[in-house]
Amino acid sequence: MNIKRIQSAFLMISISLVLVFFSSCSATKKVTENNSAYLFVYFTGNAKTEEAIRFAISKDGYNYYALNDNKPVIASETISTTGGVRDPHILRAADGKTFYMTVTDLQTANGWDNQAMILLKSTDLVNWTSSKVDISKVFAGFKDVTRVWAPQTIYDAKAKKYMVYFSMLQPGGKDIVYYSYANKDFTALETVPKQLFFSPTKGSCIDADIIEKDGKFHLFLKTEDTADKGIKVAISDKLTSGYVLKEEYVDQTNESVEGSGVFKLNNSDTYILMYDMYRKGKYQFTSSTDLKNFKVIDENVSMNFHPRHGTVLPITKAEAESLIKAYGWFATEGTVKAQSAAIKQNNVIIDIENKKMLLPVKNGTDLKHFDPEFKVNQGATVSPSGAQDFSKQAVKYDFEMGDLGKMSFDVEVAVRNNPSLTGYYADPEILYSNKDNRFHLYPTSDGFHEWSGDYFKSFSSTNLVDWVDDGVLLDLKKDVSWTDVKAWAPAAAEKKINGQYRYFFYYTGDAKIGVATSDHPQGPFTDIGKPLVAAKPNGITRGQIIDPDVFTDPVSGKSYLYYGNGFMVGVELNDDMISVKENTLTVLKPDKTFREGTEVFYRKGKYYFLWSEDDTRSENYRVRYATSTSPLGDFNIPKDNLILAKDPSQGIYGTGHNSVIQIPGTDEWYIVYHRFTIPKGITMGRAAGYNREVCIDRLYFDEEGNIIAAKPTLEGIQPVKR
């Protein structure tokens, strides 16, 4: 054995490894110095279409533009075992030119349990290879794992390997942050997961994110203790052990948060800590120079998309240009904004592929002299400027965004009277008041997460098109003693009592029916102090006590209350209109399509009963009807009784929960209903069910009195003349 030869070979190998290490560090440092932009990697929500990897780009780390029209850049079904991915994390490798991405393999439509993560690799940020890692199958000690969440990657310079860290849950335990090393090709995990962080409270911890500063590793994570939820930081001198948790929260809000991500601004000492305020549908940005003290900087931040749990990677100008070339930077929200008060902002449609934009405007807008009032961010320009003639054809606009390039759009402006109200509203009730000769509209206040609205507003009009916001008529938190949640699906009645018009407002509050009274149709209303209906009829065990409707029979003068989800109840009201005649309570029997939203009206000897089928979260939510010879009588259900349904050709979905109005003194009728918001609703999944809009269209009858199926429209109706 030649000892000197062996020693010489060992020395050469050692020198080579050192050179490789310093070469890698040099490459990373060089790229870092050249970084001039940022890549934001994120997903958008819990719907199947939202659980996918999306990209956005920024020049300054504050203002972000979605790439690829905010659509996925990788199809989830091609890389995952579940069909969905969440929590994307991206890392630049030590060589400066390779990129690693990790994502949670989870589609929440199937529940919140999962066993796998996805490892991805790229050399250009556009083309990615992927590998599935099922923890339950790879590691025998974790075969019963029920959650594998939020994997992230960091380079371990000491081990010269890429460390993947993530949280896992096993039956009977807590969510614990573990780590494992990836193999050389970044296609698998090659070491048995070890616990990385030991919580002093023994509570669950998720969504870990590690960044190194001044030789110390800062581990940001979400604590999941019952009374101790938020983002904290643990610090260690070592990457894989010794983390000591600081007591202070670093998130700067009292709202629920998760998915912290930390990155350093290019050529700066400032760090950005961002996190997902998931219950509010918002992202918050904070800044710090010491990773101890953080200040909210939301006023400096803009995004034309709504991200969930993502990460930001500093990139070079060349990398940014490559991404823009591959995907384009213009997205359907907020890249530029037409600010004119005449525009119905929720309904602006941008067709990226065909470079077209539709601006829906309110009734009465002068299309011959209209200025959209486009606003663009600093450094960007738009032309032409000022008022243009949109009455005959679209107008071409050029949007220039400096380094991000130029895009041109043909901008069309059209009067759209649907939706009828500005903003998100649903479950509309309509009333014509003989006291002020105006129409009054009473909807559910919508747009609140999981149907959590707690007040009602009223709107009035003389022509069914131009509506005035009359303000809040009943606030559960201020005006009602017996409930303060779930203000849903109102109904209203005008009744002449002792020669004076009185108004009665029936509503759902926390799955009970309440009633309030007023001398004016727009309120304010005074609640009677207790529920009008708080229990289901005998024998009814399913459904909810919601969706009241009130109907006064023009034949008898008697008034009736209807309600129910999963069952339909009718009961006569006493003369005071705030109590019921219990002995008249009747469980009515529509067909099996009945879900909720009863509406009753009378025309030419027939009582019409309308209801909604399916679920308000479904694109197939729709309206059917039956007739009767009595307000509480048996139903005659026509063979073709579907009278309102979606129209995909117009992008109209989720049409349901209606009311009906007759123009006084005529046989002219209108149906008032809600639909998914356009254009976003059909892509929102479950959230479409609480982001709805109120619309009005004509309702016609044939000679036999059958309702002719109504056609939902984008244009809406023309102003009614009386």
From TrEMBL:
PANTHER family: ENDO-1,4-BETA-XYLANASE (PTHR43772), PUTATIVE (AFU_ORTHOLOGUE AFUA_2G04480)-RELATED (PTHR43772:SF2). It comes from the Bacteria. Belongs to the glycosyl hydrolase 43 family. Keywords: Carbohydrate metabolism, Glycosidase, Hydrolase, Polysaccharide degradation, Signal, Xylan degradation. SUPFAM superfamilies: Arabinanase/levansucrase/invertase. This is Beta-xylosidase. Residues 1-26 form the signal peptide. GO terms for biological process: xylan catabolic process. GO terms for molecular function: hydrolase activity, hydrolyzing O-glycosyl compounds. It holds the Pfam family Glyco_hydro_43.
